[in-house]
Recover the amino acids of this structure.
């Protein structure tokens, strides 16, 4: 009897740990409403590149559009030195609406992308589990339709990042920049 009880408790604990490992996805995700211009307001990551480049990072502009196949074309433009750099990514849809996969051609990493929460008109919270041969990491992005968000949304972002195991020094509210191609940065 005691062994059975311990086995059941062990399975329950394993289920709880597995549940904590999963990243939620927006209920009733509506991909067409996610398209358009977004600004990256917050970025958090426990990756080495983030730790090395954190002090250089600034807000970027991202345009999201749907492809005919139902995937997402994600085009981000960000300042790098005194110029703007554009990076294109294709997020491939999965069976779960709001969840996408992406393989980085540059790094060879596999990305499991989740649209965690959005109201489509103000903000979108996106979390990514990144896997590569050297290990895995987590990245969380907070997008906004404008260059500013309320303190409540920023706190929601910070709290979610902490729930994903990220520390305060791995969470960054990005400094504002001018529009790509403008003189003010």
């Amino acid at each position: 009897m005691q062994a059975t009880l311990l086995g059941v408790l062990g399975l329950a604990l394993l289920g709880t740990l597995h549940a904590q490992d999963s990243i939620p996805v927006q209920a009733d995700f509506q991909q067409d409403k996610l398209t358009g211009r977004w600004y990256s307001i917050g970025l958090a990551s426990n990756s080495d590149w983030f730790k090395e480049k954190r002090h250089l990072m600034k807000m970027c502009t991202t345009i999201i559009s749907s492809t005919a196949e139902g995937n997402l074309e994600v085009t981000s433009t960000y300042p790098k030195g005194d110029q703007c750099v554009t990076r294109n990514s294709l997020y491939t849809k999965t069976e779960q609406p709001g969840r996408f996969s992406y393989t980085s051609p540059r790094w060879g990493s596999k990305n499991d992308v989740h649209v965690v929460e959005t109201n489509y008109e103000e903000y979108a919270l996106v979390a990514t589990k990144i896997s590569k041969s050297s290990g895995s990491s987590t990245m969380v992005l907070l997008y906004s339709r404008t260059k500013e968000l309320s303190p409540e949304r920023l706190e929601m972002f910070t709290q979610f990042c902490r729930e994903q195991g990220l520390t305060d020094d791995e969470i960054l509210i990005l400094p504002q920049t001018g529009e790509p191609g403008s003189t003010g940065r």
